[in-house]
Amino acid sequence: MKQKEGVIKPKTKRAKRFLDNRAPKLTENVKNVMIMKGGNTSMTVTQALKDIYALKKPSAVLYKNITFKYNVFIALPFPITNIFCLQEFFSKKTDSSLFLFGSHNKKRPNNLIFGRLFDFHVLDMIELGIEKYNSLSAIKNSKCPEGTKPMLVFAGEAFDHDDDHKRLKSLLTDFFRGPVVPSVRLAGLEHVLHFTALEGKIYMRSYRSLLKKSGCRTPRIELEEIGPSFDFVLRRTHLASDDLYKTAHRQPKALKPKKKKNISHDTFGTKFGRLHMQKQDLAKLQTRKMKGLRKRRGPAAAAEGETSLKTAKVEVE
Amino acid sequence: MAACSIEDLLAKAEQDEAEKLKSITVQKELDLEFDIGNLVAYDKNRIDIRQFREQKKEDFLRSLARDNTQLLVNEIWKHPTERVEEVIVVKLPEPTTPLPREKPPPKPRPPTKWEEFAKLKGIQKKKKTNLVWDDKVAKNELHRLRNIARAQKIKVPGVGLTPIAQQSKSDLARAVNVAKSSTASAGKFQDRLPKEKAPRNTGKKRKFQPVIGNFSNEKQRQLDLLKVMDSKKPRLDVNKAVNKQMREVDREEAAAKFKKGGKKGRKGGNFSGKGKGGGGKGKGKGRAGGKGQGPPSGKKGAGKPGKR
């Protein structure tokens, strides 16, 4: 899709469907990841990028050959404006809203920048340095099938107390959670990604969970390490301003669950609802006919008695 | 004794339950927070750094992961399950962690020019029904069934009136007449409405002379025919000639008026010219046919010569 001025009008139905898929929607698609390399990359970084690409296979794009020529600007302090333009271009091309940028230089060895975009502009960027790394191929175990939705676990107090870590938690959830589905096959809960925040470092481990028989319905979990294992150290961050963050979280009204009206509960938990009736003429109310109580052409006293009985009957009804 | 044994039984049952659940219970200081919609668990417990350093790093991390995953799985298994095509699936709730969107929410598209105009004028959208009854289709259907009947030699009631959507006065009159005469005595004893007129054009459409009848009459007619064929001069039908003359005068005036009008007039003039030609020819033929053979179609009667 070229960056043209003006509106691109689709000429075929297929093109129209394609453009509609990429247009802003109420419930959004899975977020795509762009994985790219900087000017200089070490073996570690390249391998790491490949592994993460393997983890996120269907919804990830790995740019093998594209290296940013403006690596001079990489040394500039955050934000890296040139990189931004290129990123935006590529993200529009592949409709990605997450990116992973790997680079290596003396000052920042084995650098990975995780980032996300909102409306094709950078929202958050967090730089993590790889201290120790074990690749997928180094750990010899049978792997999970591609595209399994992983279970994520975040352990450590830092993820709750520190702002940067909180954003990192949100970013990593966004990164690795996969498509949002209404139901999941129980036997398919195989992949577990475990993040531990300890002493300023973040340990990422990837396991395969085996569901063993236990006495009851819920199985016992045994873990087997498979995928890549990283020891990250948190370097620089570029987080979105509060209002931009708030705008990004704004959900359309249509997605809010509709509140059911006319339901109220009392202290005992009984469900109540109000019935709204038209005004009724009690004199013309249809009641049970009791033959014996019908008006008879008799003495007045008897008639009075009957009418009083009738009114009582109405109240009961 | 009995009381004792019941207590024992209960205690034993509890113990058994605990045993069963032992394999899946995990002891934690703080309960984990879960977001089952995203399959995420948050463990806020303090991690014992000393233990971390004593043990091998990987083992410590693995046991921590195992415990947390066990708790997460326990939570997932609490949710309702259903069977979909021989596979057991668990129904996940909505995700609870607020995550930023990819793109801003869609804006409602601006109304088109027509929509704005309609709103201004208060025009409401009318829904068209898909199917509309068409008399041609009904007629087609009728003919099709009749063909089938003919092919299979099934007896079919005779003359019908094909249904027509917009019935004119004559159609209705015809329908009434047909209905009237469809009685056992062919409509002879049907009463007529006070202002109803007697149907015209009933009866035989053509009258043929009997084959063997009045010989002299037949001879006379045939001789007349030959006389007309022989004569070189075309016959003059006064009525026809006068009518033609009047018509031509009218047409000339009309043509003159249209010519003033311009292009449109010219077109109209054309049509009138055609009509005149066709009408003249047709009339000539028709008339001639009625009284035996008239003049050949090429020539026109003694009308105004020259001008078409």
UniProtKB/TrEMBL annotation, chain A:
Subcellular locations according to the entry: Nucleus, Nucleolus
MF annotations from Gene Ontology: rRNA binding
KW Cytoplasm (keyword) present: no
Region of interest: Disordered: 288-317
Biased composition (Basic residues): 288-298
SMART domains cross-referenced by the UniProt entry: Brix
Protein name, entry field: Ribosome production factor 2 homolog
Pfam family, one: Brix
Automatic annotation (TrEMBL), chain B:
Organism of this sequence: Oncorhynchus mykiss
Any Pfam family: RRS1
Composition bias type Basic residues, residue spans: 257-267
Protein's name according to its UniProt entry: Ribosome biogenesis regulatory protein
Compositional bias (Gly residues): 268-281
Keyword Phosphoprotein among record annotations: no
Keywords, ordered alphabetically: Nucleus, Ribosome biogenesis
Family: Belongs to the RRS1 family.
Task of the protein: Involved in ribosomal large subunit assembly.
Amino acid composition bias (Basic and acidic residues), ranges on this chain: 189-199, 218-238, 245-256
GO biological process: ribosome biogenesis
UniProt GO cellular component terms: nucleus
